[in-house]
Amino acid sequence: MSEDQTTKHYTNGEITIVWQPQLCKHATKCWKGLPTVFDYQKRPWITIDGAESAAIINQVTQCPSGALSFFKNAEADQQ
Ligand code: SF4
Q1: In Å, what is the CA distance from 66 to each residue of 13, 39, 49, 79?
Q2: What's the total number of domains in the chain?
Q3: With 70 as the cut, is the pLDDT of residue 16 above it?
Q4: Does residue 12 fall inside a structural domain?
């Protein structure tokens, strides 16, 4: 596996959030936009069950640094 060891995955069974902390620019966009999922004061700071998948995808795609990304589990399973 060539993936950086600090990369973390959070899944709700439908989608998986991929978090690469070394890329995060702390723009605060995610925790202001969807605080029920992203809360930097919590550990772990991502609560994947805090919102519907569609809302999570919408927020993740707004991350300006690329630290947050996602994939759909069903599509990953087919590969
Ligand atoms: S939106 Fe992206 S860059 Fe900004 S704090 Fe969240 S993960 Fe980090």
Answers
A1: 22, 18, 21, 23
A2: 1
A3: yes
A4: no
Is residue 9 within 8 A of residue 69, CB to CB? The reply is: no
- Specify the pLDDT at position 1: 47
- Residue 69: inside a domain, yes or no? yes
Q: For residue 59, which atom of ligand 1 is closest to its CA?
A: 1
Q: Say if residues 53 and 73 touch (Cβ distance below 8 Å).
A: no
Q: Which domain holds residue 29?
A: 25-73
- How many angstroms is it from 20 CA to the middle of ligand 1? 10
Q: Is 23 in the pocket of ligand 1 (CB under 6 A)?
A: no
Note the pTM of the prediction, 2 decimals.
Answer: 0.89
